[in-house]
Amino acid sequence: MLSGPRAAVLGQPVAHSLSPTLHQAAYDALGLTDWTFERHEVGAADLPRFLASLDKRWRGLALTMPLKEAALALADVATDTAVRTGAANTLIRQGDSWHADNTDVWGIRAALHDAGARPEGTGWALVLGSGATARSALAAFSALGVRDVVFGVRDRVRPETLRQAEAAGMRTSVLALDDVARAVADAPVTVSTLPPGGADGVAAALEDQRLAGTGVLLDVVYAGWPTPLAAEAGRAGLNVVPGIEMLIHQAAAQVRSMTGRDAPLAAMQAAGRSTQRTRRA
C-alpha cells in the first residue's frame, strides 16, 4: 500500500515515457524515499474521471499527448504561460484545486541555451508543426526576443497558434513540409515539434539535396533516437539537440513545483541520458 506522496505521467500511449525515470532520479537524489512516480494510460475523455479518483496523497501530474489541452480546460487555476499556449503539461495539487502550468516552454528555452543557441540574435527561427508543442516553442522564442517565425506544416498552421504569434507581435510565414528542407539548413534555430515519423520526409530531402548548415536544431522526439531528421541534420552540419534535453529540463521544473525542492538537475541528466543510450543500443 502506497502511503507517501504520489505523482504520475498520464497519456495515451504512455508506456514509452521517460518521465518516471527522471522524476525517480530526482526523488532518489533528494532523499524523498516515500515519494512514488507512476505511469497511467489515460485518454482525454477519461481525464475528468481519473482526476476525480485521486486522493490527497497526489501532488502532481505530468501530461503528454493527447491530454495537454484537456488538462488546461479542467484546471481550476492556470499560469499565464499555460493560458497563452493553450496547453498544460503539468497539474499541481494545491488543496482541493488543480493548478495548470506548461513547463515545456522552459524545457525548450533551457535546452537551446545549453546548446549555445541565442535566438534573439539570429533574426528568425523555424518551427516544424503547429500544435501544442509548437505553441510552447513560440512562447520560448517570444521570451528570447524572436520576432520572425517560419512554420513548416503539412497543411496549414492552426488558427490558435497563429493567434498566439500575432499576440506576441511576431511576423509569421509558412512553408509546406515538402519544401522546408532548405529552411532547415538555413535557419539559425529550428525546433521540430512533429511526432515520430512526421519529419522523415524532411530528413530525406536534406539527404537528397545534400544540404549543409550551421544552425541549431532541437527535435523534441526522444524515443528511437536519433530520429531520421536528427541524423540527417547532424550530417548536414547542424548542432542537433536531442529531445531528451528538453524533457529533462521540463521535468526538473515539474519536480520543483511538485516537491517544493530545487531539482537535482545533474542527477536527472545522468539518468535520462543513460536511459536513452540504453534504449538506443
Order of helices and strands: EHEHEHEHEEHEHEHEHEHEHEHH
Q: Tell me the overall shape.
A: globular
Q: What is the mean pLDDT? A: 94
Rg, Å, rounded = 18 Å
- Helix tally equals 12
Helix content: 40-55%
Give me the secondary-structure category: alpha/beta
Q: State the CATH class of the largest domain.
A: Alpha Beta
Largest sheet: 6 strands, mixed
How many domains, as an integer?
2
Which ranges are low-confidence, i.e. pLDDT below 50, for 5 or more consecutive residues? Answer: none
CATH homologous superfamily (4th level) name of the largest domain: NAD(P)-binding Rossmann-like Domain
Q: Which topology of the largest domain does CATH recognise?
A: Rossmann fold
CATH architecture of the largest domain: 3-Layer(aba) Sandwich
Quantity of strands, as a count = 12
The strand line-up of the biggest sheet is: 2-1-3-5-6-4
Termini separation: 35 Å
Task: Report the portion of residues in β strands.
Answer: 15-25%
What would your notes on this structure say?
- The chain has 281 residues and is α/β, with parallel strands linked by helices.
- The protein folds into 2 domains: 6-102 and 248-280, 3-Layer(aba) Sandwich (Rossmann fold), CATH 3.40.50; 106-241, NAD(P)-binding Rossmann-like Domain (Rossmann fold), CATH 3.40.50.720.
- Helices cover 43% and strands 20% of the residues.
- Helix 9 links the parallel strand 10 (189-192) and strand 11.
- Helix 1 (19-30) crosses helix 11 (243-259) and helix 5 (104-114) packs across helix 11.
